[in-house]
């Protein structure tokens, strides 16, 4: 449209600051713009001519016609209007003006212009629809009315290349020797230039740079660096795909066998292919812009903005960046343990595209790409002239805002992943104590390292603390699992779940690896208590590390800052004072403890396996703390036993409670208890209601070494005021003779029968007699008889009686057999024939002479009290002692390498519900998974007692506990009863048990 006229700098309004007038200016009225009008320009590439355009840098000093690149939108707007995909807001813009240059003063060696690299024609191009260059067919795309040119990603693949250069040789100051500007550009995009020539000033003649100001030269150099870095980035990602991934898949023999290879590639390389796809398109657009506007590129911000605005672009980066530390860890682990993989990494480093760089360098490229791009764009913005309405002044701040917000948002994910990597390294280096089962859920996907650091511990001597110090490393682990959130301080060793502080001593091995030996047992968060964190600093004497030999004998005092933590159930035995080097470190540990405890409490309340519900709190009272009871107030005293039962029509739940004055009965969730039976401080209560269609309807009372039963229906009516005491007394039946001293009794269900098992001791007897009675399923109508008649009509003998050691104290039941707990073990008996039953004692330690772990386990249980056992699986049972538990097979022989689980409390009783055991101690109820031994919940209280735990028939059968109540006033201190209701997971699918691999982890940890 301009003919063969030359455009002067003076004819172009808003010339870039620093641009100079041409040496031989020529006025062109056709390009003189009105001074009182603003214009928007369209940047369009020239029409391709098969004969090639004249290169202005290879001509003589005579003026040459300019390339028809700038057109007024006022001339084109009426004819057509095309939207711009890279345009922001559709606002009026002015293209960055281009100066006019003259040819080089040195005549070219070859007057024939070299073939010109083609571009993709725009809508304003008038050339043919296709063209050829060196036999290559190029396709056309319509351009748009914008700074962006359309491009064809397929044809642009020819311009991808590799190679990078950090610096450039500015001394030459001339165009790449022997090449035209466009040929040099083509070679740059193809990666065929030497690294020293891959700079903007090497692709532009000195005359072009002289016509621009210093600031614009710098700006063009930075824009060029954006394109160059994008080219190198794409080349590196393509190298990862071709050299690392594809060669790993094609390796013969396989370096990593399937199916591990697919998982490894997915973990290490992640979604790198998706990132590469985005940047291939971005690079194609940048190359197209560069070919159209070189050497003076107006802007690339619109292209980059279009890419960064895409949600999937940011999503793939977020996914990759947050996973990167884990990817690096997987790679390092494979290098450490797989020699074939190590050899493969070394072999591919010789590939020209790899250039001796480690795989970590390539994996970290996406992590650093956006921050580096952000820095380059910030530099472009600084170099953009603010005196002109340049679109970069609006577009670049938008991009920078997007990138900065995105980079900031990924930091927590990166830190969490880095923490997990450090945590994995810690787990792999831990050395556990042999003998105990350790299930700290270390490899749960959600576990991470929250805080770690060096701590010191002062050694104790017989006279107190000594001057010996231990250098330790403490690590705070944090995890949220499916149902609970627990915290440990590993100061010793135990089976735990969730958050943990690990206290270890580091030992370096000859191969350079580090072993971290656990110093003490873990302390679950529910048992963790914080002591003093504000004690004054103490002094520690350290030997001088500088100077000569004599100086090494001298010492200096350094301040250390103590803090104390302790175990709530064993304050005196498990209290620990640790020291750190500064007050800031102590404060950081304190904040970490406080934050984790707060999260633990909130999550435990929201994810309980057993939900405690109050049944009564206020009626049962103990004397006030001042010891002065209120006149007329009934003090029931401490609750001794309780049993729930259902009776009446319609069915109604009642609760019978035994305490000092006798037995009280009331409907559940009612404080209107009625005193019904005068058995002071009863030992135990049991209710036989029904099994299937069999109805028994009897309350069993064990009190004052006697065993009696009453009708539940009459008892409930009497409590409601609907019956009299005489009718209740008429339902009495006495079990055992008058000269029999009942020591213990237990109500169990075996093979569809309701059995009452009790042991008795006759006067002057040296052993216990074990008797089994079966409940009769129908209660005959009451007939007039004297109260206390010793006629038993609701029970009948079941088999012959047997004999037990006199130290028997508890009875447990399985499906067909029973176990009697004694000080020497648990005696297994057949209740159908106690006299002829074969006696088996578990655990079976007969093979201790040939089995060292079994011998150690036998020594460990000496002096401990067995409480019972429960079925853990089809082939295993969990034997429960007051301090530990371990697994046995059907023959009673310890399994799982004779390892054991140490409880956090000293249990006095236990309850069994489905997959859990509840260990009851005076201050805590410790709930564990039967199969793994892992703690899932802890309930805290004062003076806790187990009142009722079964027999367990259905999920409606509760677990009842008593503990100190919440009322403490002039009426006394309340004693409350709570029901532990088993909860269910809120899920549409049943949970899938995954216990088959648990033992493999334990076997590995115990090695």
Description:
- The chain is α+β, with helices and mostly antiparallel strands.
- 25% of the residues lie in helices and 27% in strands.
- Strands 5, 6, 7, 8, 9, 10, 11, 12, 13, 14 and 15 form an 11-stranded mixed sheet that branches.
- Strand 36 (877-881) and strand 37 form a beta hairpin.
- Helix 5 packs antiparallel against helix 7 and helix 6 packs across helix 9 (311-337).
- It is elongated, with a radius of gyration of 43 Å.
Please give a handful of descriptors for the protein shown.
disordered N terminus; alpha+beta; 1007 residues; five-stranded antiparallel sheet
Layout of SSEs?
Elements: E1 41-43, E2 70-72, H1 73-76, E3 131-133, E4 136-138, H2 153-156, H3 181-190, H4 206-210, H5 214-250, H6 260-269, H7 272-293, H8 301-308, H9 311-337, H10 339-348, H11 359-363, H12 365-383, H13 392-429, E5 430-431, E6 448-461, E7 464-478, E8 487-492, E9 499-508, E10 514-518, E11 520-521, E12 528-530, E13 538-543, E14 555-567, E15 575-580, H14 583-606, E16 610-616, E17 621-622, E18 641-647, E19 652-658, E20 663-667, E21 674-677, E22 684-691, E23 694-703, E24 706-711, H15 712-719, H16 725-730, E25 733-735, E26 740-750, E27 753-762, E28 768-775, E29 795-797, E30 802-804, E31 810-813, E32 818-822, E33 825-829, E34 840-842, H17 852-861, E35 866-871, E36 877-881, E37 884-888, E38 900-902, E39 909-913, E40 916-920, E41 924-929, E42 935-940, E43 945-948, E44 959-969, E45 972-982, H18 998-1005
Parallel strand pairs: 5-10, 8-9
Antiparallel strand pairs: 1-2, 3-4, 6-7, 6-15, 7-9, 8-11, 9-10, 12-14, 13-14, 14-15, 16-45, 17-45, 18-19, 19-20, 20-21, 22-23, 23-24, 24-25, 26-27, 27-28, 28-29, 28-30, 31-32, 32-33, 33-34, 35-36, 36-37, 37-38, 39-40, 40-41, 41-42, 43-44, 44-45
């Amino acid at each position: 449209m301009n003919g063969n006229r030359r455009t002067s700098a003076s004819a172009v309004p808003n010339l870039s600051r620093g641009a100079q007038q041409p040496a031989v200016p020529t006025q062109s009225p056709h390009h003189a713009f009105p001074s009182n009008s603003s214009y928007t320009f369209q940047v369009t590439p020239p029409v391709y001519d098969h004969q090639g355009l004249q290169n202005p840098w290879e001509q003589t000093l005579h003026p040459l016609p300019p390339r028809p690149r700038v057109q007024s939108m006022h001339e084109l707007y009426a004819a057509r209007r095309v939207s711009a995909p890279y345009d922001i807001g559709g606002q009026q813009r002015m293209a960055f003006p281009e100066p006019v240059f003259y040819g080089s003063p040195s005549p070219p060696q070859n007057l024939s212009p070299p073939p010109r690299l083609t571009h993709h024609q725009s809508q304003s191009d008038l050339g043919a629809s296709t063209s050829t260059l060196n036999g290559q067919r190029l396709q056309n795309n319509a351009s748009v009315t914008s700074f962006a040119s359309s491009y064809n990603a397929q044809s642009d693949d020819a311009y991808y290349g590799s190679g990078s250069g950090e610096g450039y040789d500015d001394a030459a100051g001339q165009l790449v020797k022997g090449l035209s500007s466009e040929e040099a550009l083509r070679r740059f995009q193809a990666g065929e230039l030497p690294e020293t020539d891959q700079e903007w000033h090497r692709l532009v003649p000195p005359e072009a740079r002289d016509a621009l100001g210093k600031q614009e030269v710098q700006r063009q150099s930075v824009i060029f660096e954006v394109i160059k870095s994008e080219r190198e980035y794409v080349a590196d990602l393509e190298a990862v795909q071709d050299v690392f991934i594809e060669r790993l898949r094609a390796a013969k023999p396989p370096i990593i066998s399937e199916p591990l290879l697919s998982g490894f590639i997915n973990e290490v390389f992640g979604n790198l292919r998706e990132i590469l796809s985005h940047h291939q398109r971005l690079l194609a657009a940048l190359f197209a812009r560069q070919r159209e506007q070189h050497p003076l590129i107006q802007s690339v911000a619109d292209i980059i903005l279009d890419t960064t605005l895409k949600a999937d672009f940011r999503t793939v980066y977020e996914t990759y960046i947050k996973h990167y530390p884990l990817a690096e860890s997987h790679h390092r682990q494979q290098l450490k343990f797989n020699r074939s993989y190590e050899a493969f990494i070394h072999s591919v480093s010789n590939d020209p595209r790899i250039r001796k760089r480690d795989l970590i360098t390539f994996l970290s490229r996406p992590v650093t790409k956006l921050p580096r791009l952000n820095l380059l764009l910030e530099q472009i913005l600084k170099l953009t002239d603010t005196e002109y309405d340049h679109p970069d002044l609006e577009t670049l701040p938008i991009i920078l805002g997007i990138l900065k917000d995105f980079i900031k948002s990924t930091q927590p994910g990166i830190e969490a992943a880095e923490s997990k990597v450090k945590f994995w390294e810690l787990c792999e280096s831990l050395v556990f104590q042999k003998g105990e089962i350790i299930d700290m859920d270390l490899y749960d996907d959600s576990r991470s390292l929250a805080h770690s650091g060096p701590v010191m511990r002062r050694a104790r001597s017989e006279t107190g603390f000594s001057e010996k110090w231990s250098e330790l490393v403490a690590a705070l682990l944090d995890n949220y699992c499916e149902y609970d959130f627990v915290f440990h301080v590993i100061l010793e060793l135990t089976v735990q779940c969730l958050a943990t502080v690990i206290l270890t001593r580091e030992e370096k091995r000859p191969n350079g690896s580090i072993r971290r030996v656990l110093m003490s047992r873990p302390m679950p968060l529910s048992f963790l208590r914080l002591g003093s964190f504000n004690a004054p600093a103490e002094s520690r004497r350290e030997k001088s590390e500088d100077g000569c030999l004599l100086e090494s004998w001298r010492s200096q005092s350094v301040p250390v800052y103590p803090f104390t933590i302790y175990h709530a159930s064993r304050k005196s035995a498990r209290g620990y004072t640790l020291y750190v080097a500064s007050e800031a470190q102590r404060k950081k540990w304190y904040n970490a403890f406080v934050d984790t405890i707060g999260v633990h409490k909130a999550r435990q309340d929201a994810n309980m396996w057993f939900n405690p519900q109050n049944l009564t709190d206020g009626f049962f009272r103990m004397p006030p703390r001042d010891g002065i009871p209120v006149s007329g107030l009934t003090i029931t005293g401490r609750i001794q036993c309780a049993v729930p039962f259902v009776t009446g029509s319609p069915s109604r739940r009642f609760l019978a409670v035994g305490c000092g004055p006798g037995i009280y009965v009331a409907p559940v969730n009612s404080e209107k208890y009625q005193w019904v039976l005068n058995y002071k401080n009863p030992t135990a209560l049991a209710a036989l209601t029904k099994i299937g269609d069999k109805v028994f309807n009897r309350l069993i009372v064990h009190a004052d070494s006697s065993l009696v039963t009453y009708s539940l229906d009459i008892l409930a009516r009497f409590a409601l005021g609907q019956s009299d005491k005489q009718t209740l007394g008429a339902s009495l039946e006495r079990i055992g003779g008058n000269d029999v001293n009942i020591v213990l009794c237990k109500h169990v269900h075996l093979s569809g029968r309701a059995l009452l098992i009790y042991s008795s001791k006759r006067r002057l007897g040296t052993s216990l007699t074990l008797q089994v009675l079966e409940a009769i399923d129908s209660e005959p109508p009451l007939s007039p008889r004297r109260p206390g008649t010793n006629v038993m009509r609701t029970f009948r003998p079941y088999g012959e009686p047997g004999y037990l050691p006199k130290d028997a104290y508890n009875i447990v039941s399985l499906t067909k057999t029973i176990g009697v707990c004694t000080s020497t073990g648990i005696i297994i008996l057949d209740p159908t024939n106690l006299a002829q039953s074969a006696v088996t004692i578990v655990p079976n330690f007969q093979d201790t002479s040939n089995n060292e772990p079994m011998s150690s386990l036998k020594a460990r249980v000496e002096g401990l009290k067995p409480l019972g056992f429960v079925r853990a699986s089809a082939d295993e049972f969990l034997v429960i002692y007051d301090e530990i538990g371990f697994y046995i097979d059907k023959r009673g022989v310890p399994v799982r390498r004779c390892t054991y689980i140490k409880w956090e409390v000293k249990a006095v009783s236990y309850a069994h519900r489905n997959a859990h055991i509840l260990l009851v101690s005076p201050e805590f109820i410790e709930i564990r998974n039967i199969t793994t031994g892992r703690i899932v919940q802890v309930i805290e209280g004062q003076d806790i007692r187990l009142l009722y735990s079964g027999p367990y028939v259905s999920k409606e059968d509760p677990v009842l506990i008593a503990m100190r109540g919440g009322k403490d006033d002039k009426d006394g201190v309340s004693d409350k009863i709570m029901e532990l209701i088993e909860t269910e997971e809120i899920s549409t699918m049943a949970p899938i048990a995954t216990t088959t691999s648990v033992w493999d982890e334990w076997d590995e940890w115990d090695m």
